[in-house]
Design goal:
The structure holds 2 protein chains of 2 kinds. Chain A is built from 6 helices and 13 strands. Chain A is of the alpha+beta class. Chain A has a 13-stranded antiparallel sheet with strand order 6-5-4-3-2-1-13-12-11-10-9-8-7. Chain A starts with a helix and ends with a helix. Chain B is built from 4 helices and 24 strands. Chain B has an 18-stranded antiparallel barrel. Chain B has a 4-stranded mixed sheet with strand order 10-11-15-14, with no helix packed on it. In chain B, strands 6-7 form a two-stranded antiparallel sheet. The longest helix of chain B has 19 residues. The radius of gyration of chain B is 23 Å and the shape is globular. The chains are: A alpha+beta, B mainly beta. Chains A and B meet through strand 6 and helix 6 of A and strand 16 and strand 18 of B.
Chain lengths: 264, 451
Amino acid sequence: MSLLLQSFIIALGLSVPLFADAETSTRDPKEIMKRVERMSSARDEVVQVDMVLVDSRGRRRKRTSTLYTKQKSHVDDMRLIRFHTPADLAKSGVLTIENSDRDDDQWMYLPAYHTARRIPSANRSDTYMGTDFAYEDIADRKIDEYQYRILKVDPYEGIECLVIESIPYDEKLKKETGYSKTIFWVDSEKSVIWKSVFYDKKGALYKTLISKNLKQYDEKYRFQHLTMHNVQKNHKTIVEFHDRRINTGLSGKIFTVRYLKRGR
Amino acid sequence: MTCVDIRSALPLLKQDLAVRGFLLIICLLSFPDVCSGKSWALSFGGTASYEYIYYPKDRSSETINSPNDLRLIPEIEMTSNEWWRIQADVEFRIGFSEDDRTTVFLREGYLDIFLSQWDFRLGRQTISWGRADTFNPTDQFARFDYWDLIQPREEGIVALKSDYYFSDYTLELVWSPIFEEDIVPYNPRNRWFILPRESTLPGVGQVQLQYLDFDRREPPSDISSSQIGARLDAHQAGWDYAVMYAFSYDRIPTFVERSLLSVDANRKTATIGLTPVFKRIHVFGMDWATTVRRYGIRGELAYTLTDDPDGDDPRIEDPYFRFVGGIDRHVEDLINTWDVYVILQYALDTGDPVVDPFNPDNLTASDWRHFYRQAVLANIDFNFDEFKKISIESFVNIEDGDYLIKAEFSWKPIDGLTLTLGGDIMGGAEDTFFGFYDANDRVRIKCRYDF
């Protein structure tokens, strides 16, 4: 672009996008997303989760649970969620062991049945435990399976965020995911995502995820509050996290059917 | 409405040796931790429920509605230091249809000890073996209350169970010191009663039969009736599987001996004494479960060696095989936002029920164990959302053509509260199992609150 043309555009008040272009072009969005992924992962983590499901009429249902996660390998995780309330879900739980080379192992324990039942691993796009999250929102994101593009720099809640578009690239992922694209508001300094907007397979607005109350745990940052809003169903899941512990050397014994059946 | 004196049931609780032993263990175990000031936690929960059943086909006053029970089951859990836990739940039940159903009893009450590779559970407990749905031929330590035949309720047994964990395996060992039978209704007013309600006596003519349930003669209620079992369970490469052996008893009577006690020619009644007999069985079995893509695949196979391996005693079944296998699939948002969960199963039972020599056309206790030879089962759940669903369970006997269909709508208007409206339909030829109970089609309403 010639200097003359640049001056002309600046004079028309379009300097901000031009500035953003200049800044964003120096950054690799995939590298930024990899840093986000590294920030979100931990060797192990345990957190108390309070969830409120809000339906289209504003009716609220509360769930409390404990979520345990641990890295099994550099690509696979183990996850146990144990419900405490409501009473009819108390002591039930789901154990998931990810496997890169075959289907994930997954068991569900319901106290009424006195035994753990092997269940098929869910589709990526299936909803997670009746919430507005999908399984693909919970599992670690495989960065190389997406194409990224920085759209702009946008101040969000007073923080300068890079707005990054993510589109499924891997053919298998394209078939399995529930999203045609996702747009993230990324705080590249702390490598966290403040806001996500999800679009369905037809390209229509599907869900928004708003994160709040960022807290630092040593070298890790975690949000204490999330709101996932399914715009199409007008249904929300509000999540509060507390008593979080990261990289404390959580025992692998927690991620066993034995522990799942113990119910506590 | 029946007037109920709940105090009359309390002696049952006092008589239960398991309860007393259990309370003693609680005191012994908690004493050191309490004295040393270590942290331990106490938690409470439970359920309260009421179910009413209406039988539109048969409103005879000679039969009673079931279960029509009000139940309160408080649960208590005490735990400390990650290595032990005590749990108990006691059922307080008022039977509005039948006074005998009013009772108080310990449903489960056990002590768990968790060591590095061993878990122990001692006390009244529910032990579930097997991975198939609906029928579990390897589930030899399960005990049921069949007061309502098509809604049997699982009851605990007194046992010591240990689980030893090594590598991908678990070795389960069970010792149940004293035999406890299934609860089978011997009251002719019960809708699922299988013996004849009337008969013809020489010189008297047709009489109404009344039955007295004698104490069982076999096996004795002492340690000689111990049952043992072992199960080796594994989780490997996407498969769960187990092999098992149990030295146990038929929990439904092997046969019921009958003796004529008295005849009242004027009132045209006869009183029959019943003596249920339970014979030993050896059961060898295996079960398995895996997933292929989005399908669950489960099965179970068991061989039962009865007390009459050569087939000499007509009162005892010959050895038999039972198999159950099938697939299941959960599909999200199949219709609009409705999730659908489907289970399809095939069941085979090679056992022939024994025939009552005096009433060959009548069912026997053995028919409850072998009510099909080949059957197909299909369960479908339509989940409209997390709080509303329709469940349909169906059983079709391939050879005899009798069937059972259970359907219900359940709704959770608030957390913990579940309201259910359901119906059960059964039918078939008169000499088939569910055809025999054809008049018992019914509508159910249930309210349950978990706290």
